[in-house]
Write a structure and sequence with these properties.
The complex is a heterotrimer of chains A (about 850), B (about 220) and C (about 230).
Chain A (H helix, E strand, L loop, with lengths): L1 H13 L7 H30 L1 H5 L3 E6 L5 H10 L2 E14 L6 E10 L10 E3 L4 H5 L3 E5 H7 L6 E4 L2 E11 L3 H4 L6 E5 L16 E7 L6 H12 L5 E4 L5 H39 L1 H9 L4 H33 L1 H7 L10 H27 L20 H22 L2 H34 L7 H11 L4 H37 L3 E6 L1 H12 L4 E17 L2 E2 H5 L9 E5 L7 E6 L11 E5 H7 L6 E6 L2 E13 L10 E3 L10 E8 L1 H14 L4 E4 H40 L1 H13 L4 H39 L7 H21 L1 H6 L2 H7 L2
Parallel strand pairs in A: 3-8, 5-7, 14-19, 16-18
Antiparallel strand pairs in A: 1-9, 1-10, 2-3, 2-6, 2-9, 4-7, 5-8, 6-7, 11-20, 11-21, 12-13, 12-14, 12-17, 12-20, 15-18, 16-19, 17-18
Helix pairs in contact in A: 1-11, 2-9, 2-11, 2-13, 2-22, 9-13, 9-15, 9-17, 9-22, 11-13, 13-14, 14-15, 15-16, 15-17, 15-24, 16-24, 17-22, 17-24, 17-25, 22-25, 23-27, 24-25
Chain B lengths: L2 E10 L6 E11 L4 E6 L5 H8 L7 E6 L2 E2 L5 H11 E4 L11 H11 L5 H10 L15 H14 L4 E5 L7 H18 L2 E5 L3 H5 L3 E6 L2 E2 L1
Parallel strand pairs in B: 3-8, 3-9, 6-7, 7-8
Antiparallel strand pairs in B: 1-2, 1-4, 4-5, 9-10
Helix pairs in contact in B: 3-5, 4-5, 5-6
Chain C lengths: L5 E12 L2 E13 L4 E5 L6 H8 L7 E6 L2 E2 L5 H11 E4 L11 H11 L5 H11 L15 H13 L5 E5 L7 H18 L2 E5 L3 H5 L3 E6 L2 E2 L1 H9 L1
Parallel strand pairs in C: 3-8, 3-9, 6-7, 7-8
Antiparallel strand pairs in C: 1-2, 1-4, 4-5, 9-10
Classes of the chains: A alpha+beta (about 850), B alpha/beta (about 220), C alpha/beta (about 230).
Chain lengths: ~850, ~220, ~230
């Protein structure tokens, strides 16, 4: 019964129009739109990748081997089950142009293909020609970046290893590039047959062979996968199929999407502050009505339901607007977005993402409106009487607090589940709540300080300042709104800024100090002595580390399939570098267990990297089976090592005793620490002597990574800007809400003989104080977040970045100043007589 | 002569809705004199008061305070004049909500650079505000707020006090008490008082009385 | 001696406000007989409005007993008090306090709707006619003068035919002519329903129309003044 009554009352109240609710609607809509947009793009990308799975992968299924080509048995199986098989080989090398002493050398990722490539999709060549023509004989196509770097034109020749190739065309589009994952060098494609005689595929060199299968219609991928795994499990085979063509990329997209949704949630929180302020101010204005209804006999429940339904209806409106905006904007901007992303995108309405955004919007609206709604229930009828002592509103009930807590919990848990990065979501939620708490305390402190300052001797003679301080301190609650909303948006920006600059400093600044200049791979055993000779005798080279290098896949732990024991740990994903050593390598420290004696021969023993071992749940004595070159080697873990991967030096997860890998063909890798001056001559000499040797310039790799990080930081910053926009709207809302009071105050001041400039100064100072407070707290919160991330997640040093901090405080002040002064004009222009007479 | 009003006329609005509120009003007020301004509502009393405060300019005529023509001054000049020479008490108190009682009392005097802590303390005592100095206006009763307003008006020792129905929002008893206080303080300060009122009783307590009817002195 | 409509025994009221606890009423004891009209007078801050609120169950006394129409108001929680008010008490305020987003008809019907009365709107229409506003039922408060708004408020207060009518300076915001008209209407309606009327006022001529006048000072009944009144 009370529900119907309340609905009727709510309907009548809605006749009052939307005045006062514009900020409410905008804040809610913006927050929901941001999340809806991110979700739509993410889903569209994932849909695109799923739809294009076969093209991305280059086949319906792919079998991958390291260090070797498929065995006859394996080929038989493939031919039996597939309509077509395409074999490619993928490895790193150096493309060399010109003759000594003016050689140009560049790192490239070489792909040798057979006649069947590609099974799906079409490469796009420039100038256009058929692939067969481009690759006939020793023909090659190259990525444009590489062509530019080497200064080549179609028709020019270059060398890979000891063989010469002719560049026929530029590779504009490689259909299965996304599926290959991240590589340091741009692409060169030649026929596999043309690689004979280049010295590049000698036993022990690191290459990967991939077999793409075109399967008959309606093939059961899962069944085939199971079959292949069962037959070839212990041969080091890795299976991938079009259901998840590029898992690394998928993971990346998922992660980025989750990140951005988290940032969107921060924006929604900021919007929530605005929502709360709008509802509070609206209900404040309804005090008389609520008291009247109570006088007439309305119970607390009727009051609550009436305004709950009313505000609920408006919330649904705002959320709907946000969903429509966020769901359709990406579709409208589809061509722009598709151009920016190197991924297949299938833009469409994504109901799942929209529902998620709407759900978050609803929960946020609940969280931020229940408090003021509950307080409204407590309006005393006394509010209607003149000279009412004892305040107007009671405290909200415990029920409201419980409902708010539950909604908040639900929001966080749902977000954690849907995002797929539960751990990160919980931390982010804690961060947002923590930031809000800190900001709320800060607003409280600011008001306290302002009150004290307003009374202190220091402001004598500065009436504008005294007025401003009084306004900040006084009753009204505007201070809290401003500091909270603006502060949260600024905090997110500050945190991103600090983390970004620190990471870049670590990568581009500190890392090069300790990192080697070059990573050299594919040093053949018979080349090692000469290599050490050349590098040892060079005064410009301070240090050289070498290690034998094999690659293997961990297939079993203690006899059970590895994935069963240690889940999806990164060590199990793909092949890992494995080495052998008689004594512990430099830069490693044995933390548990014992190293084998130098002349040990017996069952294979292994030393495992400690941190990873703990993560995987390994213990001393466990038996790990590694498949190297098709052969299983089961080794017993006898020690754990502490390995520092952060210096970009040589670091292996697994080290075996020398006897275990006796006879296995392998190459060596080396890290070279050289002065800048010594680099060019060194490369020249090594290239001449060992053309198959690949030198990776660490600085280039670091720059590449830094670039990607920078891109991610930009994306996140844009997301943070959304929360800032919401914060700005809250500011405007607060300024508008306070306009009447400000006009009144200005009129009184004018009557007392204050000049307009003084009044303007007091408004400006008020804005500056609040903006500075919000900015300072944001810098503090951002610095804290940055420190936490660098210290605990990155395990690197943290240095406070003053420039971005100063910009943020400045930005905060500018924003409040703008919003505050925008509403100052009507206040200054009002005629005092009218205003003062009209005021009750 | 403290206040001279010379044939002042004022209208509001534009044709055809133009209202002639004042039509040639004159009055003189010497220092230490108290004058009541009475008349029906709409007779222009409050408008005259606002003109005397320099909050608006007369269409015709002159208003001089201590010999200086208000109308000839700039906005800045008139603001300065209000700061230094005039204290105003309204019917609706009109205190600054974000300042406490102590700050409200001292505000105008401070702005004018005429702050005298001893004088304010005495005023606060006589107005019964000594215990309320740190309260905010929204925590005070109507009578208390009006007393603060009176204190504020007198704190800078202005030469002229303008009061617009100062007891209109107070009940009989409170209003009478406040009136007593105000007249005492004005007399002590030797200031001139021009007070708009519609109470015969109050008008009778002033030295002189001016009755306005339809914008003219009756 | 009939059972009193209202019976207050040693009623105290303390409220906690922005500046700490404030004692409003200090031990008020009085009876109001059914059908009586009582005027509450006193200086500002004497607690007369608060006393009115306590009588009507709009404020719960912090000490003492309040009996109204056989109900023990001091033992009822807020919702129970609201339900009590709905059937038994009609209130008229100085500032009218009509709900701005409702028409006159809806305003008057609201208390009847809240009690679940099926004929709410018919009764509301009749009540508006009784105060002479039958032609204005669909107008909003903003479209009405002060006098008309107070008449709507009167209709709202009396439509449920309450036994107790409370009025807090009902003519305070009205000029002479309108105020007199409202006063006449108020007493007229009271006579029609036989309700008990308690009215706070600071206008002596209004207090004089009441059967009894109770004077308050500093939250207590001013006994001296009562004697003086009786002596006159």
């Amino acid at each position: 019964m009370s529900l119907r009554q309340s609905a009727r009352l709510a309907g009548r109240e809605l006749r009052g129009g939307l005045r006062g609710f514009y900020v409410f609607l905008v804040c809610l809509a913006l927050g929901v739109a941001a999340i809806a947009a991110v979700g739509t793009v993410r889903e569209s990308v994932e849909q695109g990748m799923r739809g294009q799975g076969a093209v991305l992968l280059g086949g319906d299924a792919e079998l991958r081997f390291t260090y070797r080509f498929a065995s006859d048995e394996e080929r038989d199986w493939m031919r039996r089950n597939a309509d077509a098989v395409s074999e490619i080989v993928d490895f790193r090398s150096m493309a060399v142009v010109g003759a000594q002493p003016d050689e140009e050398r560049a790192l490239t990722q070489v792909k040798g293909v057979d006649d069947a490539w590609p099974l799906y999709g079409q490469p796009v060549l420039d100038p256009p020609m058929s692939l067969a023509d481009a690759l006939a004989g020793n023909g090659a196509v190259m990525d444009r970046v590489l062509v530019d770097r080497l200064g080549l034109r179609p028709g020019d020749t270059f060398r890979l290893g000891t063989a010469e190739y002719e560049l026929r065309a530029i590779l504009a589009v490689e259909p299965d590039s996304a599926g290959s994952g991240f590589s340091l060098g741009p692409r060169t494609i030649v026929r596999t047959a043309a690689l004979d005689g280049s010295g590049l595929l000698a036993p022990g060199t690191l290459y990967e062979s991939r077999y793409r299968l075109k399967l008959p219609e309606g093939s059961d991928l899962a069944a085939l996968e199971a079959q292949a795994e069962a037959l070839f499990r212990d041969t080091g085979l890795r299976w991938r199929d079009s259901r998840n063509a590029a898992p690394g990329l998928s993971r990346f997209v998922e992660r980025m999407g989750a990140f951005l949704v988290l940032v969107g949630l921060a924006g929604l929180a900021v919007g929530g502050v605005g929502v709360s302020a709008a509802v509070r101010s609206y209900l404040d204005g309804k005090t008389a009505v609520i008291a009247t209804l109570k006088t007439l006999g309305a119970t607390r429940r009727v009051i609550f339901l009436t305004y709950f339904l009313q505000i609920g209806a408006l919330a649904v409106l705002g959320i709907a607007a946000g969903v429509v905006l966020g769901g359709t904007l990406p579709l409208l901007l589809a061509p722009l977005i598709a151009a920016k992303l190197p991924l297949p995108v299938d833009f469409a309405l994504q109901p799942g993402a929209l529902a998620e955004a709407a759900l978050y919007g609803l929960l946020t609206a609940l969280i931020f409106t229940l408090w003021p709604l509950s307080r409204a229930q407590g309006v005393r009828a006394a509010a209607l009487y003149r000279d009412a002592a004892g305040g107007v509103r009671g405290r909200p009930g415990l029920g409201a607090l419980a409902a708010i807590a539950l909604s908040a919990l639900a929001l966080v848990v749902i977000a954690a589940q849907l995002s797929g990065v539960a751990y990160l979501t919980y931390w982010a939620a804690a961060g947002i709540v923590g930031a809000l708490v800190i900001l709320w305390i800060a607003s409280f402190l600011v008001r306290r300080l302002a009150r004290r300052a307003a009374r202190s001797a220091a402001v004598r003679g500065h009436p504008a300042l005294r007025l401003a301080l009084g306004a900040v301190a006084g009753p009204g609650g505007e201070a809290a709104s401003v500091v909270l909303s603006l502060g949260l948006g600024l905090s997110v920006l500050a945190a991103v800024g600090q983390i970004d600059t620190n990471l870049r400093a670590a990568i581009s600044g500190e890392l090069p100090e300790v990192a080697p200049s070059y990573f050299m791979v594919d040093i053949q055993p018979d080349q090692l002595a000469g290599f050490l000779d050349r590098t040892g005798s060079d005064p410009g080279i301070s240090r050289v580390d070498t290690a034998p290098m094999l690659r293997g896949v961990i297939t079993r732990i203690n006899g059970k399939p590895a994935r069963e024991v240690a889940g999806n740990h990164w060590v199990l994903r793909g092949d890992r570098g494995v080495t052998y050593a008689a004594a512990p390598p430099p830069n490693t420290r044995v933390t548990q267990g014992d190293w084998w004696p130098a002349d040990y021969t017996g069952e294979p023993l292994m030393s495992f990297a400690e941190e990873e071992a703990l993560e995987m749940g390994l213990k001393l004595g466990d038996r790990v089976t590694v498949n190297i070159l098709g052969r299983d080697i089961t080794a017993r873990i006898t020690s754990f090592r502490e390995v520092d991967f952060s210096t970009a030096g040589i670091g292996f997860v697994m080290v075996l005793d020398p006897a275990a890998l006796q006879g296995a063909p392998h190459t060596h890798i080396a890290t070279v620490y050289a002065d800048a001056a010594a680099e060019a001559p060194l490369l020249r000499d090594l290239a001449r002597a060992y053309p198959n040797l690949t030198a990776i310039r660490v600085r280039d790799a670091v720059d590449r990574v830094a670039g990607i990080l920078g891109g991610m930081a930009s994306a996140i910053t844009y997301g943070a800007l959304a929360s800032l926009v919401a914060g700005f709207f809250v500011l405007i809302g607060a300024a508008a809400a306070g306009l009447k009071a400000r006009v009144f105050e200005a009129s009184v001041l004018k009557v007392l003989g204050a000049e307009r400039l003084l009044i303007l100064r007091s408004f400006a100072l008020r804005a500056v104080i609040l903006g500075a407070a919000a900015g300072l707290v944001a810098v503090l919160a951002g610095g804290l977040a940055g420190w936490a991330v660098m210290r605990f997640v990155m395990e690197a040093d943290f240095h406070f970045e003053p420039l971005s901090a100063a910009l943020i405080v400045g930005g905060g002040i500018a924003a409040t100043l703008l919003a505050g002064l925008a509403f100052a004009w009507p206040a200054l222009a009002g005629r005092p007589a009218q205003v003062l007479r009209g005021r009750e | 002569m403290l206040l001279e009003v010379d044939q002042v006329a004022k209208s509001f609005g534009t044709d055809p809705a133009k209202v002639q509120v004042l039509q040639g009003v004159s009055l003189r007020l010497a220092a230490g004199e108290t004058v009541a301004l009475t008349g029906e509502s709409g007779s222009g009393k409050s408008t005259l008061l606002h003109l005397c405060a320099g909050l608006d300019r007369p269409d015709q005529g002159q208003i001089r305070i201590d010999g200086a023509d208000i109308g000839a001054q700039s906005d800045s000049g008139r603001a300065g004049m209000r700061r230094n020479a005039i204290g105003i008490v309204f019917q609706q108190f009109n205190l600054i909500p974000s300042l406490d009682v102590a700050a409200n009392l001292a505000f105008q005097a401070r702005m004018a650079g005429r702050l005298d802590a001893a004088r304010i303390a005495t005023l606060a005592d006589r107005l019964g505000l000594a215990d309320l100095l740190h309260r905010y206006p929204d925590q005070l009763s109507g009578g208390q707020q009006q007393r603060v307003a009176i204190g504020r008006a007198l704190a800078g020792a202005p030469a002229l006090i303008l009061a617009d129905e100062p007891t209109g929002n107070l009940d009989e008893a409170t209003g009478a008490a406040v009136m007593d206080l105000m007249l005492d303080l004005v007399a002590d300060a030797g200031a001139g008082l021009l007070m708009v009122t519609h109470s015969e009783k109050l008008a009778a307590r002033m030295d002189r009385r001016l009755h306005l009817s339809s914008g003219r002195v009756a | 001696m009939t059972t009193p409509m209202l019976s207050l025994r040693d009623v105290h009221l303390t409220l906690s406000g922005n500046a700490g606890a404030v004692d409003i009423l200090h031990g008020i004891s009085l009876d109001v007989q059914p059908g009586e009209s009582m005027g509450l007078v006193g200086p500002s801050g004497s607690g007369k409005s608060s006393l009115l609120m306590v009588m009507g169950g709009l404020e719960r006394a912090t000490g003492g007993q309040v009996q109204a129409m056989g109900h023990d108001l001091s033992a009822m929680n807020e919702d129970a008090l609201a339900r009590f008010r709905n059937g038994h008490v009609g209130v008229v305020f100085q500032s009218f306090h009509l709900i701005p987003t409702m028409t006159a008809l809806e305003n008057v019907a609201t208390p009847l709707e809240l009690s679940g009365d099926r004929d709410a709107f018919d009764k509301a229409r009749a009540a508006l006619q009784a105060v002479g506003l039958g032609a204005r039922v669909d107008h909003y408060p903003a479209q009405m003068s002060g006098g008309e708004q107070q008449r709507v408020a009167l209709a709202r207060a009396t439509a449920p035919e309450p036994q107790l009518l409370l009025a807090d300076e009902p003519t305070g915001n009205l000029d002479g002519a309108n105020g007199a008209a409202i006063m006449d209407l108020l007493f007229d309606l009271r006579d029609r329903y036989g309700a008990t009327l308690v009215m706070v006022t600071h206008a002596p001529e209004l207090a004089a129309r009441c059967d009894r006048v109770v004077r308050l000072r500093d939250g207590r009944i001013d006994a001296d003044a009562a004697e003086r009144d009786a002596a006159e």
